[in-house]
Design goal:
- It is a single chain.
- By secondary structure, the chain is of the alpha+beta class.
- Helix content is about 25%, strand content about 35%.
- The chain folds into two domains: about 200 residues, BirA Bifunctional Protein, domain 2 (2-Layer Sandwich), CATH 3.30.930; about 45 residues, SH3 type barrels, CATH 2.30.30.100.
- The chain contains five helices and twelve strands.
- Strand 4 and strand 5 form a beta hairpin.
- Helix 2 packs across helix 4 and helix 2 runs parallel beside helix 5.
Length: about 260
């Protein structure tokens, strides 16, 4: 495993693409202390100051492009498992690639709970013929930063842990977090490549940690939007929704918002 660290990058995805096209080996990692043009899905801005963890993993999997979607689910599942089991956070995965934390707040002397975004993933694939050249998985985790200043529906690990009196103004070690994620993610990738875990098993495990199924959602794509109740995530990774007329539709790609 090679780790390339940079104080500042436009995005780790851009640098990872450059390195991948120049034969960077499987499981190379690009880390930036700060991104000045961080982006999320559908080219949305992702604030990326020095207190968060911003990185991209370069993969050269041996399976065909049609199965590449498994990498996204393995990555988001790996992030969620580390945040839940290592840091004790009440997290869930939101289709397709977001990690949410259940945050407790007080309003009119009542406790209310909100799902706030703590991490997001972005993927990029290049192929040659019927084979994968590389798949890059970009991951941004709000660790010690304060994203709520600009994004009301976002939070960070430190903010939630401080609120729960687990870390009182103590920074979380980003190196430990990155190392834990890479170990967990590598286990998933090896299991997929060896055949010891298949699409069905992976999606079923992912669904055990999702908050999307059962929610009313709005899915935005480059071609428009869809609204309805999320009723399942299929073996292909597509989200199945049912609209108000009872019609069902499978959506492969889009940005999901809870309503």
């Amino acid at each position: 495993m090679q780790i390339h660290f940079f104080p500042t990058l436009s995005t780790t995805m851009d640098k990872a693409r450059e390195l991948a096209r120049n034969n960077a080996p499987h499981f190379s990692v690009v880390v930036a202390e700060e991104q000045i043009k961080g982006r999320g899905r559908l080219n949305r801005i992702w604030l990326s100051d020095k207190e968060g963890l911003w990185f991209t993993v370069i993969l050269r999997p041996i399976f065909p492009p049609t199965l590449a979607f498994q990498i996204n689910f393995a990555a988001s599942l790996s992030v969620a498992k580390i945040l839940k089991y290592q840091y004790g956070l009440d997290v869930s995965v939101k289709w397709p690639n977001d990690i949410l934390i259940r945050d407790k707040e007080s309003e009119n002397n009542k406790e209310i709970f909100q799902n706030k975004k703590v991490a997001g993933l972005l993927s990029e694939m290049e192929t040659y013929g019927d084979k994968i050249s590389f798949v890059n998985i970009g991951i941004g985790i709000n660790v010690n930063n304060n994203p709520e200043i600009e994004q009301l529906n976002a939070t960070s690990m430190k903010q939630i842990l401080n609120k729960n009196l687990q870390y009182i103004n103590q920074d979380i070690c980003k190196i430990d977090l990155l190392t834990s994620f890479l170990d967990e993610f590598e286990k998933h990738i090896l299991a997929i490549e060896s055949g010891s875990i298949n699409c069905i098993n992976l999606i079923e495990e992912w669904k055990q940690m999702t908050s999307t199924i059962g929610k009313r959602v709005r899915i935005e794509t480059f071609n428009g939007f869809y609204e309805g109740i999320a009723i399942d995530v299929e073996q292909s990774g597509a989200l199945l929704i049912r609209d108000d007329s009872g019609n069902e539709k499978s959506i492969i790609y889009g940005d999901c918002f809870y309503q």
